[in-house]
Fold:
Amino acid sequence: MRVSGVKKYVTIANRSMQNTFSYRLAYFMNMLNAFVGLFSMYFLWKAIYGGRDVLAGYTWDQMKAYIVITFLANSLLSINSEFKISRDILDGGVAMDLIKPVDYQKARLSETLGSCLVEGLFSALFVSLLLIATVGIMVPDRLATWLLFVVSLALSILVKFGVVYLTGLLCFWTTGSVGLVWARAAITNLLSGALVPLSFFPHWLEKLAMVLPFQSIIYTPTRIYMNGLSASEALQMIGIQLFWAVVLWFAGKFLWTHAIKKITIHGG
Structure:
């Protein structure tokens, strides 16, 4: 991609960041909502442990770290990005994108990355630091673990974007988006390990979840963070994340190519 081409998408990302800052009330309400959800999960799991030392291979200290990293990974790409893609399709806004000299998929990724830097990263780091200061969580003591975790977390964003983008494109064949978005969120939260670590699942469901792309969103970065994988295992899991990021990206291109051949825009 030429420098001029890259600049177009950087501009889109920058505009997305500015839009997020423009709606300060919505930003802080989202942060408050995430904060309440985080502490709800913390106290729920604290009650589940109820003095137990280990559950499904997780100590209470490990579970606290799992909760925080799950929150961090989920916050980096909020459900607002998904609603925006589907809303543009349903209200006809996508028609303007078709006449712009930009790739629709890359533009949506740029918007998503721009908003996640503000909406996700700042609020996630704020609450994570607060948790570390108040309840204490385990922290990796090796630089290699931190580097692998950062790479894994970045790839988890790409995988989740791929899933979100495909779900948004399905609105070309529907008259609504709410059902699709919430169904996608429910499936992703369950099979990624966001609600319950995959090791808590029945054996057959755990095996199924491990061959689907969703585990790359939450399970892999949390396992790497908690030193639950050796270096070779971590690299293998990161390779799987990269595989799914590429597969979902090209799946999105394929679906977009077919969608614009039979567009029916509602309200636009």
In short: The chain has one domain: 3-262. Residues 216 and 241 are 5 Å apart (CA to CA). The first strand starts at residue 54 and ends at 55. Residues 3-262 form one domain.
